[in-house]
Amino acid sequence: MTPAAGSTVDHPFFARVWPIVAAHETEAVRALRRENLAGLSGRVLEIGAGVGTNFANYPRSVSQVVAVEPEPRLAAHARAAAADAPVPVVVKAETAEVFSDGEPFDAAVCSLVLCSVRDAAGVLRRVHSLLKPGGQLRYLEHVASAGARGRLQRLADATLWPRLFGNCHTHRDTERAIADAGFEVHTSRREWTLPAWAPLPVSELALGRATRA
């Protein structure tokens, strides 16, 4: 849920809270992270790396991960996690919007980040431009729910939730934004990380794979 806009972002409260939250993720979320990264190879761009929670799960077929994390305090945590990763990881303390690289990537990974960027469409277009033709986008994202939970999400987004959790907006049609950015979605499913009745607006996640069309 790491935000991105401009060159860096400053979320001191979120930067204190998120390392604790990440260290206590449910096994259901950890399993989805592993599934999201399974089978990747070549050079991978990770958007909004947070504290580097994904790093330990990258398969050894990945030659390099370039991880973009614009919150400086979280980027420091990510660099520490990169030192213990099974594959080479470079952490860039900047946003996706300003990031550039001389070589296109084989794949990109978004994990719990598109809910909190200020311009999800712009970030996705940028990711699209940084991938090779046919390059993969792997995503694990909070998404808008229907019914009563959707109403709860809209209420949360309009009040304190984004201020407390690094600009996280829970009621976003993220998969439509992915398609609108020029990606072709091949597989997608919804998963509940808590019981459906639990009053937490970020319980429903979308796990999917898309390619640069």
UniProtKB/TrEMBL annotation:
It comes from the Bacteria. Transmembrane segments: none annotated. One of its GO terms (biological process) is methylation. The keyword Transferase applies. The keyword Hydrolase does not apply. This is SAM-dependent methyltransferase. InterPro entries: SAM-dependent_MTases_sf (IPR029063), Thiol_S-MT (IPR052356). Gene3D superfamilies: Vaccinia Virus protein VP39. Keywords: Methyltransferase, Transferase. GO terms for molecular function: methyltransferase activity. It holds the Pfam family Methyltransf_23.
